Structures are given as structure tokens and as C-alpha cells.
Amino acid sequence: MASGSIVCHGCRDDGKKQKSWFTILGFGKIADAMRDLRKGDPITVTGKLQLKSRRTKTGEDGNDLEIVVDQMLSARLIDPTEGE
């Protein structure tokens, strides 16, 4: 198993830019490929969203969205010379 964080850049209805962070989880060959990624590598993932409940250090309840990755595409892993 491997896990990491990704940021998704998008726009809100009012045109302002917005960042959303997600935890991604990979198993098997996906996990092996995730271990080869570097910070800042652009990737595309597909998978299942799952909602994970958590309690903050201050005792407040919160939720996190995680993506259990079914497929992942990385430009650097296709062309390992990219970014050098």
C-alpha cells in the first residue's frame, strides 16, 4: 500500500481559483508506481471516493475525502526524461 496527497486546481462559480487537497491510496502495482513519483509530478487518477471521519486535536469532528486509485497516469513515468 502507498498513500500520498494531491492537489486539484479548479475554479469556483465566481471565477476565483480554488485548491482542493485529496489523500490518494494505492495498492499492488498502483502502489509501486506511486512510490516512483516525485513532488510536483503531474498525474491523473481515477478511482473510488471514500469519506473518512476524523477527530481533530482540539476534539472537533471532521471529514476527509480519500481516493482509492484504480488507474493512474503520470507523464514522467511515461517519459522518464521529462523534468530533467
Description:
The structure is a single chain. The protein has 84 residues and is mostly beta strands. The protein has a single domain (2-75), classed as OB fold (Dihydrolipoamide Acetyltransferase, E2P) (Beta Barrel). Helix content is 13%, strand content 56%. It is built from two helices and four strands; from the N terminus they run ββαββα. A four-stranded mixed beta sheet has the order 1-2-4-3. The protein is globular. The two termini are 28 Å apart.
How many whole angstroms does the radius of gyration measure? 15 Å
Spatial gap, N to C terminus: 28 Å
Query: Quick one: how many beta strands?
Result: 4
Number of domain units: 1
* CATH architecture classification name: Beta Barrel
Q: What order do the helices and strands follow?
A: EEHEEH
- The low-confidence parts are none
Characterize the main sheet: 4 strands, mixed
**CATH topology-level name:** OB fold (Dihydrolipoamide Acetyltransferase, E2P)
Tally of individual helices: 2
Provide the CATH top-level class. Mainly Beta
State the shape. globular
How confident overall, as mean pLDDT? 86
Beta strand %: over 45%
Strand order of the largest sheet: 1-2-4-3
What percent of residues adopt helix (DSSP H or I)?
A: 10-25%
SS class? mainly beta
